[in-house]
Amino acid sequence: MFPACYAEPLAAGRPEDLSEGRFPLLTGGMMTRISITVDGVRYDDDVQPRTLLVHHLREQLGKVGTVVGCDTSNCGSCTVLMAGESVKSCTVLAVQADGLEITTVEGLAGASGDLHPVQQAFHDRHALQCGFCTPGMIMAAVDLLAENPDPTDAEIREGLEGNLCRCTGYQNIIRAVHDAAATIRATGATPEPASVADGPMPGTPDAEPAAESEPTPVPAEAVPRPVP
Ligand code: FES
Ligand code: FES
What we know:
GO terms for molecular function: 2 iron, 2 sulfur cluster binding; metal ion binding; oxidoreductase activity. The protein is of the alpha+beta class. Helices cover 32% and strands 11% of the residues. Among the domains are: 23-107, Beta-grasp domain (Ubiquitin-like (UB roll), Roll); 117-187, DNA polymerase, domain 1 (Orthogonal Bundle).
């Protein structure tokens, strides 16, 4: 049962008011066409100017490996790479990503399915308990190691300070980042991300048209959830 403060606007027909465009930003009256490449696949979609990147990824593209952990831009669970830099995707508008490449945790594994060294190290070091923070923690660690291949404990703590974990006490996370750093230094390379699918790209004229409220079809090679 709704408290009175919620029941009143519903009884007053608030949904109909919205659908008639009194609040165009809430109803989709103003849409912007964007083209972003996510995990190697290009998507063309119409989005509202207010749509956050994290919601676009999850709700329109089906990239649910990227998690919403807070409403305050504090937790870092939603971290993705945008043009190679880690960003909290709940602090970025989808329109700001237009024309850019986005990498989510779902695109880290190699085309052959091999885990990224950071993913493997999180698995090996058991650097998670509930796992909710893990996608963002991994993406932040990937960015950290791209900038600093041999970080100290302090540098790892500083590099991951925007990502909160309520479960692990961080020790295993730090050990995992050290392990991943050593692996990357030893091998000299990280796996190539999943490649663009053959055939028409979603959202292009040759592709099957997607219903407005349906997620854009997700290519098979982008589906595996590599989070340990
Ligand atoms: S969901 Fe983005 S910082 Fe918490
Ligand atoms: S493992 Fe649960 S929040 Fe980090």
